[in-house]
Structures are given as C-alpha cells and as structure tokens.
Amino acid sequence: MARVVLLTGGNVGDVKERLRTAQRLVNARIGAVLRCSHCYGSAPWGFEAEQPFVNQVLVADTDLAPHEVLAEVHRIERELGRNRAAEAVERAATGQRYVSRPIDIDILLYDDEVISTPELTIPHPGIAEREFVLTPLCEVLRQRPHPVLGLTMGELRDNLLGKTK
Question: For the 7,8-dihydro-6-hydroxymethylpterin-pyrophosphokinase domain, which residue ranges apply (predicted)?
C-alpha cells in the first residue's frame, strides 16, 4: 500500500461539483481517500483566463503503481470532460503553455518515491513554486517533507511567501 497525494482543479463549468465527482472516482478506482483539503480559488497560473481556478488536494492509500495511478487519473479526467487533444490545439493556436480546462488531476507525491520518466515526474516539479498547490497541501500535510528538497510543505510555502520563522 502506498500513499498518493493528488491535486485536483479546474476553471471551466461547475468545478466544485466536478471536484466532488473526482474525489468519489479516486476513492473508487485509485484508493481510499483519507484526507482532502478545502477548495481554494486562485488566479490562472502561467496564462491568462477569465475564470479563476478551484483546487483541492486529496490524500489516498493505493495498491496501484505510480504509472497505474497516472493511467487512472487520465481516465477520470476524460470522463469528467477533459480533452487533451483540444487543449493541444488551443495551446498551439494561442502560443500559451497552459489553457483553461474543466478538470486537471496531478500526482504530487507517491510515498517518498522519486520518479523521472517522460510520462511521469514525482514529486511534481511545480510544488515549491506554486502557492495554489502549497496552500491546500499545507492544510492536510503541512509537516510532510518534500522527498527531494527535504523541507516540509509548510517551510516551502513560507519560503514562497517570504515568511520567516
């Protein structure tokens, strides 16, 4: 059994309902959801969009291997309306790296594993630079050390926000 930490989010449509559905699907297909953060609103990161994002962190126990979790996450995203092919077309047309989407589920952590493949990077490379990740993550795992950086999630958030102890 492994502990997986996921970030769910989106900014198109009824995002909060979609996040509730994603949580139920994660619980049914990936593993028992042990903890979840509140939903947090944030401005789009890395691109311009009219709608803000809503994000939530889920912590689950799983019997799936990391690449199996990724495959299941992609299935859940498709079921909930994400179309990665359409997003690629929009990114090409706008020249933006990111675009609005109804759902996005990222694997932030998988136990203390460090994985770097073309398909999957764990821990998620953007954790330390993204307040919209660290805020819900700190709600549920503030004292959890980052497996590469060695700092706790709380310390990473404090560093990002320029806070001192």
Answer: 6-140
Split into its structural domains, the chain has a count of 1
Closest CA relative to residue 112, chosen from 69, 74, 146, 141: 146
Is 51 a member of any domain?
yes
47: left (phi over 0), alpha (psi -120 to 50) or beta: beta
Our measurement of the distance from residue 122's CA atom to the centroid of its chain's CA atoms, rounded to an integer in Å, reads 12
Phi/psi for 152 (5° steps) reads -75, 165
Tokens read off for 1: 């059994």
For residue range 31-45, what is the model confidence (pLDDT) as tens digits? 999 999 999 999 988
Q: Is residue 161 part of a domain?
A: no
Structural domain span for residue 123: 2-127
**What's the pTM?**
0.95
